[in-house]
Amino acid sequence: MQFAKLDDSPMFRKQIQCLEESAESLRERSLKFYKGCRKYTERLGEAYDGDIDFASSLETFGGGHNNPISVAFGGPVMTKFTIALREIGTYKEVLRSQVEHMLNDRLLQFVNIDLQEVKEAQTRLALFMTRLVKSFFH
């Protein structure tokens, strides 16, 4: 970005400081959100595993449609319940995948790359301002 006129003044420095603080605050909030998203995706993965394990246990207990004991215990109803559990588990896994891809990966890129570029720009600006001030006094 080119500036036609760039004056070093207390107000300008205050604005730069405010921008730096805002960038750092955004970085901290983004990291907290990223950590929350990671925990959520881990819990969704655990919930998916639990749903699938329970559905498998239920299928094993149910024994199938041809088993008279299974039919007496409500095997056909258990089969429907098992199908529903697997579907719910699948939705949890899709949600986990989307949160991981759409939020976690993008937040990490934002914190590690985009905000790092802001810090580098701040460093370049500070160096530019130092050289500018020195050039006035030499």
Low-confidence stretches at least 5 residues in length (pLDDT < 50)? Answer: none
Overall pLDDT, averaged?
A: 82
- Count the beta strands: 0
What percent strand?
Answer: under 5%
Tally of helical segments: 3
The dominant shape is rod-shaped
The N- to C-terminal Cα distance equals 26 Å
Provide a descriptive summary of the structure in words.
Helix content is 88%, strand content 0%. It has helices at residues 10-62, 68-72, 75-137. The longest helix has 63 residues, at 75-137. Helix 1 runs antiparallel to helix 3. The model has no long low-confidence stretch (mean pLDDT 82). By secondary structure, it is mainly α.
List the helices and strands and how they pair.
Blueprint: H1 10-62, H2 68-72, H3 75-137
Helix pairs in contact: 1-3
Q: What attributes does this structure have?
A:
138 residues; mainly alpha; 3 helices; rod-shaped
Please summarize what this structure is.
The chain is mainly α and 138 residues long. It is built from three helices and no strands.
